């Protein structure tokens, strides 16, 4: 690995953030509490206003891996269909 290269996980877009939250069966408020952030931040990620980056993206990667969440679009779509409306 060259100097300055970093191993990066998947890019967290709005659909993947929402799918992970639904996979975990959490509300935005509950997920914010678990991640140590504000509910508004989760909302901003899910609407695409901002994307998780740095430590937030790393934390989402860890949570997703431990929860058995697949980053593939098929899993994200399935989680969204299974959950119906926002919890």
List the helices and strands and how they pair.
Blueprint: H1 14-23, H2 28-35, H3 39-47, H4 55-66, H5 73-83
Please explain how this structure is put together.
This protein has 87 residues and is mainly α. It has one domain (14-80): 434 Repressor (Amino-terminal Domain), CATH 1.10.260. The protein is 57% helix and 0% strand. It contains 5 helices and no strands. Helix 1 (14-23) packs across helix 3 and helix 2 (28-35) crosses helix 3. The longest helix is centred in the last third of the chain and has 12 residues, at 55-66. The N and C termini lie far apart (42 Å). Residues 1-5 have low confidence and may be disordered.
So what's the overall shape?
globular
Q: How does the helix and strand content classify structurally?
A: mainly alpha
* CATH level 1 class label: Mainly Alpha
Write down the domain tally. Answer: 1
> Please, how many helices?
5
User: β content, as a range?
Assistant: under 5%
Say what the CATH topology is.
434 Repressor (Amino-terminal Domain)
Tell me the total number of β-strands.
0
Q: What are the segments in which pLDDT stays under 50 over at least 5 consecutive residues?
A: 1-5
In short:
The protein is an all-alpha fold and 87 residues long. It has helices spanning 14-23, 28-35, 39-47, 55-66, 73-83.
Which features characterize this protein?
87 residues, 0% strand, disordered N terminus, 434 Repressor (Amino-terminal Domain), single chain, mainly alpha
